[in-house]
Amino acid sequence: IQIAQCFEATRQRCCRLEQDGRRAREQLARVEAERAALEVKLKHARNQVEVEMKKRHRAEAELEKQERKLQLVFESLMREPWGSGVLSGEQRSVLSALAGRRLGAALAPGRRSSAVDESCQSLLSHSDISYDRTEDDVVRS
What we know:
The protein is an all-alpha fold. The chain has helices at 2-79, 81-86, 89-106, 121-124, 133-140.
């Protein structure tokens, strides 16, 4: 009777372990599916960041080009003798103030648009985001 009871206890324990194993495999399948979906989202996010960075660089280049043109026009207005006759003293001072504040800083090399907060630049840099599959290979081996 004791042997039969031990076999029954062992059989019940095996059944519980099989159920636990089945639940663990199901959970693993769900987690792997979720991981795959997140990898796809990450890939799309990286691509979107790259596209937006390219757009931003193009816009900044265009802004710098337009600011250089504006600086040239300003300098031309200030140098030409007819400019001093056309512009009043107040207009010249306003242009000088604008040139000193806006255009002088605009032509500084490496300047970025102040409209964009770059405090999280390193967080969004697609080059900083990497996924190394060698870690997975070690774990799965």
